[in-house]
Amino acid sequence: MSGGEAPARAAEMALLAEIAKLAPSGVRIACRTIRDGDEKLLLPQEARTITSRQLHARRASGAVRAIARQLLVLEGIENPVIRRSASGAPLWPEGITGSLAHDEVMAVAAVARKTGTVSLGIDVEPAEPLPDDIAAIVPISGDILEGVDQHLALRLLFSAKEAVYKASYPLDGKVLGYEHIAVDLRGRKAVTATGRKAQLSFCLFPRVVVLAEASADAVAPVSWPEQVSPSW
């Protein structure tokens, strides 16, 4: 193992040990550091749907699809391909729900059979405070930030809303802003303005990772952003 590969592998193993605790029964989860050359991990069918010409974006797409394909093989899917839809969401094999995410360093993926899990969303962020300009637009009055390290509470809130959006969009087809998702970090749950509820699991170190599992049925939609106090 080369000098560059050893730290990358150590970072993967450290995060994998934490995210393995997040996955409910029936959900598979994995991670990989993004490395030079990972753009070559894209299958030709996938590469044609990744329109970005930025090298890092293609590397991240290759890294995250490589680990997601490994998870799909474990689910019995032969020769899986994960294309990108026009909306930017990954296209999963029939009967599978899943989610992909990456930051500048790490890629994460989660997959499950739809027979046991309705829809998944995952997000990964550095374990650092959220920049002030983003922190100013993420919280709403319906959010509950107690019960977690307040140093990372807004970063976790941001990541949770990203994960919930990814879980809800395949079900409701609605584009949501931060103001349309209320998160209870203490209760590890969330609800969207479309009435979709989600259960959350997360870790804060060595990176912030949030896994959201959407409910099968939506409750009555909430009129947001005017009404931002959800009925939990």
UniProtKB/TrEMBL annotation:
Domain 4'-phosphopantetheinyl transferase: 120-199
InterPro entries: 4-PPantetheinyl_Trfase_dom, 4-PPantetheinyl_Trfase_dom_sf, 4PPT_N, Enbac_synth_compD-like
Pfam family, one: 4PPT_N
Cofactor requirement: Mg(2+)
Domain (4'-phosphopantetheinyl transferase N-terminal) ranges: 57-112
Binding sites annotated in the UniProt record for Mg(2+): D123, E125
Catalyzed reaction equations: apo-[aryl-carrier protein] + CoA = holo-[aryl-carrier protein] + adenosine 3',5'-bisphosphate + H(+); apo-[peptidyl-carrier protein] + CoA = holo-[peptidyl-carrier protein] + adenosine 3',5'-bisphosphate + H(+)
Keywords: Enterobactin biosynthesis, Magnesium, Metal-binding, Transferase
SUPFAM superfamilies (UniProt xref): 4'-phosphopantetheinyl transferase
GO biological process, one term: enterobactin biosynthetic process
A Gene Ontology molecular function term of the record: magnesium ion binding
Family listed: Belongs to the P-Pant transferase superfamily. EntD family.
Biological role: Involved in the biosynthesis of the siderophore enterobactin (enterochelin), which is a macrocyclic trimeric lactone of N-(2,3-dihydroxybenzoyl)-serine. The serine trilactone serves as a scaffolding for the three catechol functionalities that provide hexadentate coordination for the tightly ligated iron(2+) atoms.
Name by which UniProt lists this protein: Enterobactin synthase component D
